[in-house]
Amino acid sequence: MDFNATNSTLSNATKSSSLLKGSWHMHREFIYKVYLTRGILDISMALITAFSNGLVIFLFLKDPKKCLRPSPTSLLVASLALVDFLVGSALEPTDAYYNLSIAFGKKSSINRKDMQSATAYLLLCSMLLLMLLTFDRHTAVSRPIQYSQRITKKKVYFSVVFVCSYCALLIFVIRNWGEAFRNEVFCGHVDLVLVITTALFGHIVYSLRRQTSKLKRLSVNSDDVFVVQASERERKVTLTLAFMLVVFLACTMPWFLMMQIFDYCKLCQKNWWVLKLLFILFQANCAFNPFLCTLRLPRYKVALKCILARCAFSRRFSPSWRYRRAYQLKKRFSNTANLQGSGKKESSSSSVALAPVLTQYQLRS
Length: 365
Known about the structure:
Elements: H1 2-62, H2 72-103, H3 112-142, H4 147-150, H5 153-176, H6 182-218, H7 225-261, H8 266-270, H9 272-292, H10 298-317, H11 319-364
């Protein structure tokens, strides 16, 4: 009886250990897939983010029309592009290395807390600078006459330095004394930025509509050029801002909402991998900022077109291109000349061959 009981106990232990091993292997394979996906997405997002924001910085430094550096808006845009470029060139490759190291079971040489602090700092700076840029556009639309007095380069420099210093001080305080409340503090700041940015977007659309309706009331004819232009401008800006706001909220809200309820939601804790993958979408906002905001500004459009025109002009009239083009034309001319010469030879030979036949035919007739 004892022997049978011992055998049954051993068999049960063997089954439980095999089940534990099987579950461990399944869990390890699942972790491998999650972190491998996160690492691959990090690499692809790093390329897009670094390229798009590097292009904005290049346009600002090159400034072919000399219209970007004097503008306070362009300075804000360049500051936002610099922070986002650091996200794409430093943060996302480091995050990719960290996740791929976990996926392949290797110990990463990067401290997790250092990487979390750098991530929080850069992303919070990016969101605050985007809020400042929205406030700049709001002032330009709602109060165009007072814009030059309210928004100056000195104020923009001070605002950018203040944002970077404030974020650095906040991360330092959280790292040393407020580690237990880091999620609440970070989510509170993101809450504030989202509310203010959304309110500014809405007020910009409201101001444009009010200006258009005022022009319609003042004009006698509804087909007035100014009214038509104002209506078209309102429609374009409203569509652009609506698209920007939808993309901005779509990138930030999913991860942000799940981050806030993660400690209180058992379903979220069970599906922890969703939070890991949604963070890539949160970082994607840095890659979309140049396409949604920067390259739509008229001055950056003009600078980009000027750079592309110069590249095309230099390529067309460079010595190497001219020599290559001359060689191609010479080769084409020689080929046509050879074809024409061969055609003449064939026609002369056919006429020589046909001549005796004709003479014989004439003689016979």
